[in-house]
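Quick one, probably user error.
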C-alpha cells in the first residue's frame, strides 16, 4: 500500500496528476463508500423494477378493465415524466407528508433519501419493464398458450410456467438496455443527497480541486459497472436461449 501511495504522490508532484484517492486514506474511503452505495442502489432498483415489470405485464393482459386501467395510467405517468422530477416528487412532496416524531419529539422523515431513490428508480424502470415484458408476451405464439390451456393450466399457471419464461427470452435484449440505463440513472440520487458515487466524487473534487482527475475516475468506474452488468445480461441470455425464441 505504501508503494502505491508513493506512486500517486509522485504523479502529483512530477506530473501534476492529483489523484487523491490513491494516497489519501480519507478520500479513498469516501470514494469506495460512494461506489458501494451506487452498487446497492443499482441492485435493489434492478430487482424491484423487474418485479414491477412482471406484475405490471401480467395485469395488462388481464381481462378486467379495472385492473388494466391503473396499470396503464402508471406506465403513462412514469414514461412521460422525467425521472428527476419523479425523484423530487417522491422526496419533497410525499416525503414532506410521511413524517414521524422521534423519541425527542422532533418530526423526521419516515422514509430515508436512499429508500426514496430506490422507490423512484424502481417504479421508473419498472414502467418501462412492463412494456418490455408486455411486448415479449405478445410475441409468444397463441398456439403455445392454447396448448397449455388444453393441458389444464389456469391462466396464472400459463403465465408463470409457459408465457413468462418464453417472453423473458424474447425481452432480454431490450431489458438489458433498460437496466443499463437504470444503472446510469442512479446518479440522479445525487439531487437528494444520497451519498452515491457522483456525490462522493463531487465532495472530493470540491475539497481537493482535482475535478479533472475525479471526473476521469468517475467515467471509468461507470464504464466498469455497466460492463459488468452487460456481461451478466449476456451470460443470462445465452443460458436461456432456445432455438426459435429471441435472438
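Nope, works fine. Designed sequence:
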Amino acid at each position: 500500500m505504501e508503494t502505491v501511495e508513493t506512486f500517486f504522490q509522485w504523479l502529483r508532484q512530477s506530473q501534476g496528476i492529483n489523484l487523491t484517492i490513491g494516497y489519501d486514506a480519507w478520500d479513498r474511503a469516501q470514494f469506495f463508500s460512494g461506489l458501494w452505495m451506487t452498487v446497492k442502489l443499482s441492485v435493489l432498483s434492478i430487482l424491484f423494477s423487474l418485479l414491477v415489470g412482471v406484475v405490471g405485464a401480467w395485469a395488462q393482459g388481464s381481462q378486467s378493465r379495472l385492473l388494466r386501467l391503473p396499470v396503464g395510467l402508471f406506465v403513462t405517468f412514469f414514461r412521460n415524466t422525467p425521472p428527476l422530477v419523479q425523484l423530487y416528487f417522491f422526496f419533497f412532496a410525499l416525503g414532506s407528508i410521511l413524517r414521524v416524531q422521534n423519541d425527542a419529539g422532533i418530526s423526521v422523515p419516515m422514509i430515508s433519501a436512499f429508500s426514496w431513490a430506490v422507490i423512484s428508480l424502481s417504479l421508473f424502470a419498472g414502467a418501462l419493464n412492463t412494456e418490455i415484458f408486455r411486448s415479449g408476451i405478445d410475441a409468444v405464439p397463441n398456439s403455445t398458450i392454447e396448448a397449455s390451456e388444453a393441458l389444464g393450466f389456469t391462466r396464472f399457471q400459463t403465465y408463470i410456467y409457459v408465457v413468462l419464461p418464453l417472453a423473458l427470452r424474447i425481452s432480454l435484449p431490450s431489458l438489458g438496455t433498460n437496466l443499463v440505463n437504470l444503472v446510469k440513472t442512479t446518479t440522479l440520487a445525487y439531487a437528494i443527497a444520497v451519498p452515491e458515487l457522483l456525490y462522493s466524487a463531487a465532495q472530493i473534487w470540491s475539497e481537493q480541486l482535482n475535478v479533472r482527475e475525479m471526473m476521469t475516475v468517475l467515467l471509468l468506474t461507470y464504464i466498469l459497472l455497466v460492463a459488468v452488468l452487460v456481461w451478466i445480461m449476456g451470460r443470462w441470455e445465452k443460458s436461456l436461449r432456445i432455438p426459435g425464441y429471441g435472438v
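The mean pLDDT is 89.
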